[in-house]
Design a protein that fits this description.
The chain is of the alpha+beta class. Helix 1 runs parallel beside helix 3. It has a single domain, classed as SepF-like protein (Translation Initiation Factor IF3, 2-Layer Sandwich), CATH 3.30.110. It has a four-stranded mixed sheet with strand order 1-2-4-3.
């Protein structure tokens, strides 16, 4: 590598389990660090689906306001990405 090339810093991925509404602030802190997050929602879904729905809605608004992306990964997980990473979605063409 010559001196004119710059080395990019690594992109990190972190798994977090959402247990209750108090986890929102720490998740937002991680989002600010430009980390890809895999959020495991099963424990809270088993305890309180209404609370989980509120948390996901708040995180959705927050992530979109930062330019990031958020999507479900099956039944048990949600992925959150920083603005530099977009989540591929299948386009469903209506014919």
């Amino acid at each position: 590598m010559n001196s004119m090339q710059t080395q990019k810093s690594p992109l990190y991925l972190k798994a977090i389990t959402i247990r209750d509404i108090k986890d929102i602030s720490s998740i937002k802190d991680e989002i600010k660090k430009d980390i890809i997050l895999i959020l495991r929602v099963t424990p809270l879904a088993q305890k309180d689906v209404g609370e989980l729905r509120k948390i996901i809605e708040e995180l959705y608004r927050y992530v979109r306001s930062t330019g990031g992306d958020i999507a479900r990964l099956g039944e048990e997980r949600v992925v959150v990405t920083p603005p530099s990473v977009k989540i591929w979605r299948r386009s469903y063409d209506l014919e």
